[in-house]
Amino acid sequence: VFLIYQYRNMQNHWLYKKNIKKLSAEEKQEIFKQVQKNVHKQHRQRRIRLYLSISAAACIILAIVLLNPLIPPLAPSEIEVLSHTADSISNEKDIQLILANNKTITFQKDADIKYNIEGEITVETEDEQIRTSEEITAEKISQNTLIVPKGKRSSLTLPDGTKVWVNSGSTLRFPTQFNSKRREIQVEGEIFIDVVKDKTRPFYVNTTRMIIDVVGTKFNVSAYKEDEEHSVVLVEGCVDISIDSEKARLSPNQRLSASMNDISVKEIDVNNYISWKDGYLQFSSEPLRNILKRLSRYYDTPIHYDENSATLKCNGKLILFDNIEEVLETISNTIPINFQIEETGVSVQKKP
What we know:
The protein has 352 residues and is of the alpha+beta class. It contains 7 helices and 23 strands. The protein has an 18-stranded mixed β-sheet that branches. The longest helix is centred in the N-terminal third of the chain and has 43 residues, at 25-67. The radius of gyration is 23 Å and the shape is globular. The two termini are 21 Å apart.
């Protein structure tokens, strides 16, 4: 059994502050040991980056001064094309909140989004806060879409107070306001949801394969389109799940997994499946291939591996605040793998 740790500016990170109590004294001590090892390296890298940035800025300013008289002004149509192209490129990597009126709000960093019953929207990221509003009409319930690309995460508080954590590579569709009879959202990807109890209005989570019926509960849904297996992990309460003609009811600490040919329910440690929302991965006897798949989504980096390394079993906790190279370096110090950063992604092989 081993513990995997990563640390960088963690003390000021909101996920760290929220979850430091979940770690044991030994785990905390090991994390801070990593700080001492990395301080000198980080300071040296920052000095180098600062010198390079100053030099690059000076060169750019000089080039602008010298070349500006020689560059003809752009026509209005050319400016529009360039602006649209730049927005399209940035949006592919940004979190997008697409409102019912076709207005799109984008965020470069992980975002915490809150709706209230009046249609007011507040968005907070690490360095900005945005407020806007949507017009709500009783005649028509508007649908919004939250797109969280690979490499990003988000959270969303719905008008009834229900909170949803949205993992990398996921899409969530939800109404501006729930109607008087039922609350309903659609998910493609992975979410953790804490549903506010309301017996008069059941809550439904729909995926391409499942309909999950709840009243008030906490559970995780993993339903990526590219995954052969979709799953529901129940933390609190009770959920009823419909998959085609099959039905199942989950109790706390149970996981339902559904593939094309099989549906099963097992007792599990829920932290192995929900820890991602708190900024770390916990696993017990987990094949390396599953961990690498989750890291690939988390860091938006393709990871290629051979079958020998894919079947290696891993146990422990992996803090996810560093870049993927440092995470893989730590893994390679605990299980027998080599990795190489390439133009097409990361290559992982089992050591000979």
